[in-house]
From TrEMBL:
It is a multi-pass membrane protein. Residues 212-262 form the RING-type domain. CDD domains: RING-H2_RNF121-like. GO terms for molecular function: ubiquitin protein ligase activity; zinc ion binding. Keywords: Membrane, Metal-binding, Transmembrane, Transmembrane helix, Zinc, Zinc-finger. The lineage of its organism: Eukaryota, Metazoa, Chordata, Craniata, Vertebrata. It is found in: Membrane. It comes from Cyprinodon variegatus. This is Ring finger protein 175. SUPFAM superfamilies: RING/U-box.
Length: 313
C-alpha cells in the first residue's frame, strides 16, 4: 500500500517483536562470516588468558600497587558509564558515598590519630558492609522471584522486577567491594599511626594489658570514668581487645593478624554463628567481582582494539 513506510510498521510492533526482527536482520547481515567470528572468539580467549596471567603475577609480586590501581579503576570506571548513560540515581549515591568515605579516610590518616577515629572508621565501613550485603541479597531474591514467575501473582511486569533485582544486586556488590578496599587502606594507616608494629611485623612500642591496640582506649573502665563499655575478645596470641574493634579489624578491614604482634588470627574462633560465616563467603564473592568490574572493561577494550586493527567487525 502506497504511503506506508517500513519505519511505521516497526512503530506498530511490540517491543518483543521489534527486538526479534532486529535480531533476524543481524543474523542476515553476518551470514557467511563464520571464519571471521571464529577468529574474533580466539582473540577474545587468548586476550583473557594472557590478561589473567599478567594480573595474577602483578598481584603476587606487587600486591600494594595492584590493589591501588584496581581500587582507582573500581571508583572511576562506573563513573564514566554513569555519566555517559545518564544514570543520575547511581551518580548521586556514588557522590554521597565518596564524600563521606573521603572524610573518614582523612580522619584515619591524620597524625596524631584521635582516640575516637578507629571506632568511627570501623562503624562506617561495617555499616556499608551490612547495607551492601542486605541490598545484594534482596536483589538476588528479586531476580529469583522473577525467574520463578512469582511477579505474576503481584501483577508486576517481569522487566520491572528483573531491573530492580539487577540494580540492587549491582549496588550491593559494588559498594561492598569499595567499602572493603577503603577499609583496608584505613586499617593500614591506623596501624602504622598507632605504631604498635612496623612493616616488618615487629612491635615498635610496648602495649599495656589494659589498652586496646585498635582504638587505643582502655579495655575496662570504672563506672565514673569516661571510656568504652563493651565486651572483650582474646586472640590466640593472648592479646585482648574490644570485641567490636577486633571484629571490625578482622572482618571489615580484612586483617587476619593481631593488631599488636601481627600474629596470624584464627577467624573461625571469631565466628559465633552462621551469619558471620556467610559474611566471609560474601567477602570472597566481592573479591571476585573486583576483577569483573575493574579489569573486564579494559580487557574488552583491548579486544576491540585488536579486532579493529585487524579489520574485524
Amino acid at each position: 500500500m502506497a504511503g506506508v513506510h517500513p519505519q511505521d510498521d516497526l512503530l506498530k510492533m511490540s517491543h518483543r517483536e521489534n527486538w526479534r526482527m532486529q535480531h533476524e536482520r543481524l543474523h542476515v547481515k553476518h551470514r557467511g562470516h563464520e571464519a571471521m567470528h571464529a577468529e574474533m572468539v580466539l582473540i577474545l580467549i587468548a586476550t583473557l588468558v594472557v590478561a589473567q596471567i599478567v594480573l595474577v603475577q602483578w598481584k603476587q609480586r606487587h600486591h600494594r600497587s595492584y590493589n591501588l590501581v584496581t581500587l582507582v579503576q573500581m571508583w572511576v570506571v562506573p563513573l564514566y558509564f554513569t555519566i555517559k548513560l545518564y544514570w543520575w540515581r547511581f551518580l548521586s549515591m556514588w557522590g554521597m558515598f565518596s564524600v563521606i568515605t573521603s572524610y573518614v579516610i582523612f580522619r584515619a590518616t591524620r597524625k596524631p590519630l584521635s582516640c575516637r577515629t578507629p571506632r568511627m572508621v570501623y562503624k562506617w565501613f561495617l555499616l556499608i558492609y551490612k547495607l551492601s550485603y542486605a541490598v545484594g541479597v534482596l536483589g538476588y531474591l528479586a531476580i529469583m522471584f522473577t525467574m520463578f514467575g512469582f511477579n505474576v501473582f503481584f501483577r508486576i511486569k517481569a522487566e520491572d522486577s528483573m531491573d530492580v533485582g539487577v540494580i540492587m544486586l549491582f549496588y550491593g556488590l559494588y559498594y561492598g567491594v569499595m567499602g572493603r578496599d577503603f577499609a583496608e587502606i584505613c586499617s593500614d594507616y591506623m596501624a602504622s599511626t598507632i605504631g604498635y608494629y612496623n612493616r616488618g611485623g615487629i612491635p615498635s612500642r610496648s602495649l599495656t594489658g589494659d589498652i586496646c591496640a585498635v582504638c587505643g582506649q582502655r579495655i575496662l573502665v570504672e563506672v565514673e570514668e569516661e571510656g568504652i563499655i563493651e565486651d572483650t575478645f582474646q586472640l590466640s596470641c593472648g592479646h585482648i581487645f574490644h570485641e567490636f574493634c577486633i571484629r571490625g579489624w578482622c572482618i571489615v578491614g580484612k586483617k587476619q593478624t593481631c593488631p599488636y604482634c601481627n600474629e596470624k588470627v584464627d577467624l573461625k574462633r571469631m565466628m559465633n554463628n552462621p551469619w558471620e560465616k556467610t559474611h566471609v563467603l560474601y567477602g570472597q564473592l566481592l573479591d571476585w567481582l573486583r576483577y569483573l568490574v575493574a579489569w573486564q572493561p579494559i580487557i574488552i577494550g583491548i579486544v576491540h582494539g585488536i579486532n579493529f586493527s585487524l579489520g574485524l567487525e
